[in-house]
């Protein structure tokens, strides 16, 4: 399922740092890699996981591969979380209403 | 790092379904388990991962263990995502302003 891959891709510090960088604009592999103290094959493996999850896209011009954010996937992960929160909040509002009603009845 | 564990816990369909259920209110293990066609040891392993990540809490009364959402952790995951989106959006607004300025200069 797509959300499995999405959240799994987000569960790594390096990959989240790459995403945070790409949120500020596209970048070539070499530019991305210089921020990380990591062998290039390991680093490109992280980029592959991000691309497979749909969080980033890449294109190659000559010998340079450039990555950019695919914002829709980030949005979907956020949407799932905010939907759960809204369920949680509406439950709390219901509890709150209930307690207020109890209080009103007691005060009458 | 805590966000690693958080997103990793969210990367499984069963665990997300349990969270979605707990967003509607606390539930005992037996109540949670009945929605899933899964052996109890595998299911309780998922509950353990959720609890280790900080997304849920549990308490035991007699023989019944009850789980509830720990909303702060859900909020933290959402916050990370919304921060990235806001970087992405402000970059887009800057591009937009730049293009509008280009257009104005051309129209003068």
Automatic annotation (TrEMBL), chains A, B:
Domain HTH arsR-type: 1-89
SUPFAM superfamilies: Winged helix' DNA-binding domain (SSF46785)
InterPro entries tied to this protein: ArsR-like_HTH, HTH_ArsR_DNA-bd_dom, WH-like_DNA-bd_sf, WH_DNA-bd_sf
CDD domains for the chain: HTH_ARSR
Domain of life: Bacteria
Pfam family, one: HTH_20
Protein name (database record): Helix-turn-helix transcriptional regulator
Species of provenance: Undibacterium hunanense
